[in-house]
Amino acid sequence: MKNKEAKKIMQFISEAGMLKAVTRSGWSVLGIKNSESVAEHCFRCAIIGYILSGMENASSQKVILMTLLNDIHEARITDLHKMAQYYINTQDAEDRSYLEQVNNLPARLKDELINLHREYRGQKTKESIISRDADILECLIQAKEYYEQGFAQAIKFTKKAPQFLKTKSAKKIWQFAKNNNITGWWMALSEFKR
């Protein structure tokens, strides 16, 4: 690998790291301080995507890549909550920044990431639908967790989003999360005696 190529790869990696500092802006509207970062959201999306891909018999590799990179454009344009999205054509901005981000990668990586992005946007393949469900489900679970932690307004985020879930697996997981305490799991572990 030549230094020029290594430099471009390192720039992409560094830019992805910026997502650790970009907070999910929708939670700030509710007054939640120190809310999750975009990187934290993407991480759990990938975990959820992996689980859903197994349940739905789809390519876990494609789903994980789609979920990890779905919001990478936010390193450049930040996370825009729904009120901001009302005034801005976010899809054009997201697509433009994403394409610029991957443009300097080696051809094989660039082509793969562009194709995955197009597939995700098209929402026609099983993997793209699962990836979108993972994104929605992660937001729903995060809202439920914030609600259980005392942020009463967070429950509003769980009212409309479930109608956009498409896979049976995501719907089933959400029904369980919706109807049960999901932040108390650690209590059983802390009470476990050896």
The termini sit apart by: 52 Å
Strand content: under 5%
Overall number of strands: 0
CATH topology: Hypothetical protein af1432
Q: Which stretches are low in confidence, meaning pLDDT under 50 for 5 or more residues running?
A: none
Per the principal axes of the C-alpha atoms, what is the gross shape?
globular
Relevant CATH superfamily: Hypothetical protein af1432
- Tally of separate domains: 1
Q: Which quaternary structure do these chains form?
A: single chain
Count of helical segments? Answer: 12
Series of secondary-structure elements, N-terminal to C-terminal:
HHHHHHHHHHHH
Which radius of gyration do the C-alpha atoms yield?
Answer: 18 Å
What structural class do helix, strand and pairing data support? Answer: mainly alpha
- Mind summarizing the main beta sheet? none
Mean pLDDT, rounded to whole units?
93
For the record, the CATH architecture stands as Orthogonal Bundle
Helix content estimate: 55-70%
CATH class: Mainly Alpha
